[in-house]
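yo

u said u wanted the structure for the complex thing, so here. seqs first:
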Amino acid sequence: MFFGIDTGSGVWNAVMLLLFLAIAILIAFLLRSMGIRGHRKRVHAGEPFYFGNEVPESAYIKASNVYWGFIKAMEKYYKPVMAEHTGNVNDYMAWLVLTMAGILLVIFFM
Amino acid sequence: MNEEIIKLGFALIYGIATILAVIFLGLLYKGIDRKLAARFQSRVGPPIRQPFRDVSKLFMKETITPENSVSWIFHSMPLIAFATALLIILYLPIGPFAPILGEYGDLILIVYLLAIPSLAIAVGGFSSGSPVATIGAQREMVLMMSYEFPLAIVVLSLAWLANINATGNAFALGTFTANPVWEMVGIVGAMGLVLLLASIFVVLTSELSKLPFDIPEAETELAGGVFAEYSGRDMAMFYLADAVKSFAMVTLVVALFFPYNLSPWIISQFGVELPAIMGIPIAAYVIDLLFFLFKVFIIMFFAVTFVRVSLARLKIDKASYIYLVPTTIIAIMGMVFIYMGSAL
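structre next:
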């Protein structure tokens, strides 16, 4: 129906997806509108929760910490790989040449 | 063209009815889960209708916007999480009823859609401008990155199995409903399917943010984590999204692994003719729907309730490791067993 992709293995129709997404958003919006909008003005109402303390600037996690758990879980892989990131262009070129040589060996001898 | 418009109109009515029914069922199962979990812990527990009361209570509460938040993202994410959870349901078969959008989307789309509520939760957490919610959002992202890999292996293995053993689109859920996976394999392949089922059970717990993988929320250490700043109707949206997504995720497992209906067995076993009204086999539909709800209950009981009362919360790196290494290895072993079973 309408515009769709059928590869023989899978199907996807973006128009139907968007149409029914719009309906789902409408239903969600109608349900949401049953609730109370906003809040009364009072002291401390919109302050971020930090267990009753003032929020220090350093309490915000940095972008470098976003994947902490993931990197920690894969430490055995990441540690040697990150150690290879020396910042020296010569090292990166050496890796590029080595990888290309490896790929060419595989292509020609296998 | 007229026929297509009638079909679309029917799909719209059927879709809206399904959405409303699934919201009810999602909350009902949430209530059953809470009651059973309480019984496991020798508590009386809340009444089964408690989730309905929780939602109505949240609708009566004020919706606070944190000072540091990006308010339009903060308020729109709960809506997106709930709407996409509702959308997933439309691509899944509910008992004897074929998926409303089954012809318009496949398993790959469902896997992508399943990621959106979690992404919305993470984005909502980041936008709330609270350190506690930001940590929760960070954990949600890490968990998502970890469990998507074994989930993808399970889906690809089953699609590969369907591709060589069944007719029709390999990624379409209808193919799995018409050709149950257990009937496509021998003993070795069945062992592979058991391993894939085990992997998807582990993924299920995390997809639903339940113990021991409820690390993004972690009430006892992060005070609700990613939801710390949410209140009122926004929190109600996330609550409903969780209920609907739980039902959707379990329905997906039922559709992939246990798509059997009871009525054909009753007819063949007892030789009875099930009553029909105006040619519509109402009795068979009722029996199959009840059987489907029973299957959902059983899977929810073993994959969610039983697990969450038995285990303590894991540290985020341990949880991530469980998905990236053991669960992925189990899923790959399942894939290899299925391949070996097919090659034999």
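Chain A has a mean pLDDT of 84. Helices of chain A lie at 14-32, 68-73, 75-83, 89-109.
cya
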